[in-house]
Amino acid sequence: MVSAIATRVALAFAGGCVGGALRIGLGQVFPDADGIPWTLLAINLVGSFTIGIVGVLWGARAHLWPLLGPGLLGGFTTFSAIAAMAWTTAVGPGMSFTILAASLIVCTLAAKAGVYVAEVRKGAL
Prior knowledge:
Elements: H1 4-29, H2 38-58, H3 65-76, H4 79-88, H5 93-122
């Protein structure tokens, strides 16, 4: 019998594969211009908002959270990629740092907004 931990790891892996593929696909469909990773910033913003919602609505469900939270949305949003992109853009180190800092702040606020929306939906607020 497969352990609960192995099942959660497999779900997170499967979700991460799909989320990463979605991120890469969107990057191909909407290539960045001017050296600023606009597509990746939008992906992280939407993904952060969504992970806030998913965490509230389904975070306690052992069979859904690993798949949707750290899996799908973790693969879709990738702050390691934004960090790498921020330091390798053609806009210089000052703008790169600004992109990175703005991304972290805005995406944290987006996740908090997602939590708020989900709590309102659940009637917790």
